Amino acid sequence: MNYAISYVSTVASGISENEIENLLKLTSSNNNQVKITGILLYSNGNFFQVLEGEKTMVTDLFEKIQQDKRHYNLIPIFKKEIEGQKFDTYENLFLSLDAAYNREELDYYKSHVEKLDPSIRNSVNYVLENFS
């Protein structure tokens, strides 16, 4: 049985967009290496993340994330056991007011959300819709 955790948080002041882009690249590389799948989105000073994989790995990673000083106001959306993994890989997206909004990219991530357990799907869709 796999485990999934999702949360939203606020980026700490003083973190540059360049630092956030570097964080997204590092996170993607590290999580794909250890077979943690999911998404990390950044938009307008906030993070939204879904992590899934082997329970111990996901919960250990989440403990580290909670201690990370680059964000605060971390609000868990769900923490639960899941059957299989709903995401193929771990990916991220930087949504910025200065960047061209790409609805197709967000729709791609939302298509993975449709695979989630119905009891949490609506909450995650609501966050995603209002996140960008």
UniProtKB/TrEMBL annotation:
Which Pfam family is an annotated match for this chain, by its short name? BLUF
One GO MF term: FAD binding
SUPFAM superfamilies from the UniProt entry: Acylphosphatase/BLUF domain-like
Domain annotation BLUF: ranges: 2-93
Superkingdom field: Bacteria
Question: This protein is called what?
Answer: BLUF domain-containing protein
